[in-house]
Design brief:
The protein has 196 residues and is an all-alpha fold. Helix 1 runs antiparallel to helix 2 and helix 6 packs antiparallel against helix 7. It contains eight helices and no strands.
């Protein structure tokens, strides 16, 4: 019962943190014409922020034996932050060119692979490492296709920008994969038998 109480308290903290973060653009709008958010922007941002925090709590709670691992918690946090940052960047300004460039919708495939892969791997560290490496590889594949199809010529995009931005996300997903590998190595044989 106390565990449920702690979980609900943590959810409340996530909701409060989400509200505080959403106050930043709201206050910014009062002082600058450069900050222009619509109601839908606030709704999407709220869903993304709260959803990411809730997902972290849920994943680390349902896998108590694995979730006790510092590396596992770090890996989950890093993976969720990387996914959130990819979505946020893509919706705000776009990864290639502007946010309206159709190739940017492909990046949601990277997130889709992460979500489906996590459930297939049952959130276990070894499987999650493979999922994160697959996400990094997919990100690299999209960058390669963008370069091969001449997307570097799109306004607001260049070869350097495509390689740099995609390289950044590839690095984030790879670091998360490595953290999951360390989490797997950190597990005791007893925990491995219970969770896998």
């Amino acid at each position: 019962m106390e565990t449920n109480s702690n979980f609900y308290r943590s959810i409340a903290y996530v909701a409060i943190a989400t509200g505080i973060l959403l106050l930043i653009p709201l206050i910014g709008m009062q002082f600058s014409d450069d900050v222009v958010w619509t109601l839908s922007d606030f709704v999407v941002a709220g869903i993304l922020l709260f959803g990411t925090g809730f997902a972290y709590l849920w994943v680390t709670r349902i896998l108590a034996t694995v979730g006790d691992s510092t590396f596992y918690r770090a890996a989950v946090g890093f993976a969720l932050f990387s996914g959130l940052f990819l979505i946020w960047s893509n919706l705000a300004v776009g990864i290639i060119g502007s946010e309206n460039n159709s190739i940017n919708t492909w990046y949601f495939g990277v997130i889709f692979i992460g979500i489906i892969g996590a459930f297939i791997a049952r959130f276990q560290p070894q499987g999650m490492a493979y999922v994160m490496f697959t996400m990094a590889l997919t990100q690299a594949l999209i960058a390669g296709i963008a370069l091969f199809t001449g997307m570097a010529e799109v306004p607001g995009s260049s070869v350097t920008e495509i390689l740099t931005v995609n390289g950044f996300f590839i690095t984030l997903f790879t670091v998360s994969a490595l953290l999951f590998r360390y989490a797997e190595q950190e597990r005791t044989p007893e925990n491995a038998a219970d969770g896998g």
